[in-house]
Every structure is written in structure tokens, then in C-alpha cells.
Amino acid sequence: MDSFILSTLKCPITLELFVDPVVANDGHTYERSAIIKWVKNHSRTSPITRQTINIDQLKPNRVVKQLVDQYRTISTPQIGKALILFSGNGTLLNTEQQILIKRLFQNEKKFLLIYKATVNGFDSDDFHRYCDNRGVTLTLIQIHNRLHIKKRASIFGGYTTIPWSSQSGFYRDPQAFLFLLNQERITRFNLRSQDETAVSHYASAGPVFGLDDIYICDRPNENNFSYSKFPHSYEDLNKNGKGQKTFSKSKYFLVDEIEVYMVNM
Predict the structure, then answer these.
(1) Do the beta carbons of residue 169 and residue 201 sit within 8 Å?
(2) Residue 152: which of 182, 123, 126, 180 has the closest Cα?
(3) Which of 35, 67, 91, 158 minimizes the number of CB atoms within 10 Å of its CB?
């Protein structure tokens, strides 16, 4: 399906396929639950036109609903499989991004959400309470996008077979990797060698990959002390020259969300 047509089947707020599309009095179509939440949190202002939106005037968009249903029918084998692989109440990944994540692995895996920072807490203690000794994990991080409020920030993170712990240490993991994910593509970054440090464990910090290739501090939503020293333990084969700004626009950053998934082999 043409990418432009597909974009019209996604809510401009959630960037996901519509389930219950409605037309607001600003003339645009939104997911019902998303626009109601937006209006309540943004003084009844449209996210597109900035005019006042009246929730009582929301009308079902039956045409878009029909098109989405047709698209889902055509894409059911691939989309359905991706949705089954991811369980829990994660919000960072839309369907297309779940499929991109899936392509990072040769064998099929299932992902169970075990930690979500906005729900379980941003403290390092919260991270370790939910993630320590949980086996193989996939970590997703979304940083605060202060320059482009409307634009959804890219997601980055890492995969490791070493269980997280609160005991300080540096661990090798030949299977570990980092990744950078946007709406249309995903880039994988492998270790420079099998002898490199894949993950670092600190009781006073959140997830740390490599020797601070990605370092998430305590309360990263409040403290601007999370940073990236990439490429260090992990290698950038793309040679894009962004270095420490590969995952964010600056070396240091605030974090909006972290999701950690336990991976079943």
C-alpha cells in the first residue's frame, strides 16, 4: 500500500492504525480515546489547527474505519503475528515498529513487558525491582524531544542475554547489540569484538550498555545526567559521523519513557 495512503489510516497523535476513528470539529480524524485524552491535557486545543475542539461533536469516520479494516485484512498474517509476539501494555512501539524489531532476530522470539518507567517509576530502584534476574531482555528508550514537540522522538535501546542485577560489574555478551528505531527503519549496532563489555551493572543507575555507550541515570526523567559515549564498546559500521549524538541530538538527555521486555527464546 502507498505510504501516503497508509499514513491517512493512522492517528496523528498515536501514529498507530485507527481502531475507532472520529472526525473532530477541526476537520481532522483522530483515534477517539487519543483525542479525548489530548483535549483534556491541552486545554481543548486541536493538535493540528490549534482551534478549540468540542468532544461532544466527535463523529465516527466510517470511511476511514472501512479502509483500516480492509488494510488489516490484507496485512493480517504479518501484523497479527507481530502483535502476538509483543504482550503487555507497552505504548512505545506501533505495529510497524514491532515488525522492524522482529527483523533483528533470526529466530522467532516473544516479548513480555516487565517494566514501564511511566507506570512503575523512574528511580533506579524501580528499574532493578522489576528487571533484575529476569533473564534475556530487550530495552527500549525514548528521550525528551524538546526541539520538536509535535515530532515523535526516535526509539533506541539494546538487547542482552545477561540478566540485569544490582551488583556492580561489567559483563561480556557476544549476542548483545544496540539499535536505533524510527518510523520506517531500524539500525543495529554490534559489539566491536566478543571481548568487549556488553552491559554494565550499577545499583544506582538504570540500564547501561557497553562502557557507557548508553548510560541511563537514576530518575532520568528529572536528571539530565543520562548520556551516550557511543561508539565505544559497540561499533558504528554506518560511519555516519554522529558519534555520541547517534541516539540523541546532544550527549546528555532527559528520558520520557523506558520499556523493558523479557524475551522468551
Answers:
(1) yes
(2) 182
(3) 91
72 with 186, same domain: the answer is: no
**Cis? peptide before 231, omega within 30° of 0:** yes
3-state secondary structure of 62: helix
Beta-bridge partner residues of 209: 199, 214
Q: Tens digit of pLDDT for each residue in 202-250?
A: 999 999 999 999 999 999 999 999 999 999 999 987 766 667 778 988 8
Q: How many residues would you count in the chain?
A: 265
pLDDT band at 175 (very low <50, low <70, confident <90, very high): very high
Alpha helical stretches, state H, 86-160: 95-102, 117-120, 124-131
Of the candidates 177, 133, 127, the one whose C-alpha atom is nearest the C-alpha of residue 156 is: 177
Please report which residue ranges of 94-215 form alpha helices under DSSP H. Answer: 95-102, 117-120, 124-131
Residues 185 and 236 in one domain: yes
What is the total count of domains within the chain? 2
Give the type of residue at 14.
T
Q: Please, are residues 156 and 247 in contact by the beta-carbon 8 Å criterion?
A: yes
Q: Give the whole-angstrom CA distance, residue 20 versus residue 175.
A: 41
CATH number at residue 18: 3.30.40.10
Q: Are 8 and 64 in contact (CB under 8 A)?
A: yes
Torsion of CA 33, 35, 40, 41, to 10 degrees: 110
Q: How many CB atoms lie within 10 A of CB 51?
A: 12
Domain range for 184 is 90-264
131 and 179 Cβ atoms separated by less than 8 Å:
no
Contact present, 233 and 191 (Cβ < 8 Å): yes
